[in-house]
């Protein structure tokens, strides 16, 4: 697979992850859960972190960055209960949905990268 076709396969995942980061950053104002300070700060900070990881992955793919995105997404899913703002349903559902999406996209990116980079074994004649 050429570099151009490889980028085409993986680019959409990187851009969608970056869009999730921007959404997380903007969501407290859009969904009006900025009155719950802990939820708003969590969304802001996680949004910035997701954007930063997405930019880093766009510059050069590294497996550890995808694993970091998976860990960040998983932490985002449980954060409302850990920090104590699970009663704010909008904030909780937003963070859980975005966290699951980040995990899924990072896992898919790892899987796709393995398929694209690792050639199939050749059988000896």
Explain this structure.
This protein is mainly alpha-helical. It has one domain (3-117). It is built from four helices and no strands. Helix 1 (3-30) runs antiparallel to helix 2 (37-59), helix 2 (37-59) packs parallel to helix 4 and helix 3 packs antiparallel against helix 4 (89-117). The model has no long low-confidence stretch (mean pLDDT 84).
Mean pLDDT: 84
Q: Report the C-alpha radius of gyration, rounded.
A: 17 Å
Count of individual beta strands = 0
Largest sheet: none
Give the total of domains: 1
List the helices and strands and how they pair.
Layout: H1 3-30, H2 37-59, H3 63-83, H4 89-117
Structure summary:
This protein is mainly α and 125 residues long.
């Amino acid at each position: 697979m050429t570099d151009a076709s490889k980028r085409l396969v993986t680019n959409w995942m990187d851009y969608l992850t970056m869009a999730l980061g921007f959404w997380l950053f903007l969501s407290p104002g859009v969904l009006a859960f900025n009155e719950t300070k802990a939820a708003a700060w969590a969304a802001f900070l996680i949004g910035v972190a997701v954007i930063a990881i997405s930019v880093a992955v766009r510059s050069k793919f590294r497996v550890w960055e995808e694993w970091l995105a998976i860990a960040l997404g998983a932490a985002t899913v449980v954060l409302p209960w850990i920090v104590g703002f699970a009663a704010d349903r909008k904030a909780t559902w937003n963070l859980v949905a975005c966290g699951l999406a980040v995990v899924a996209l990072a896992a898919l990116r790892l899987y796709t990268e393995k398929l694209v980079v690792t050639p199939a074994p050749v059988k000896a004649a």
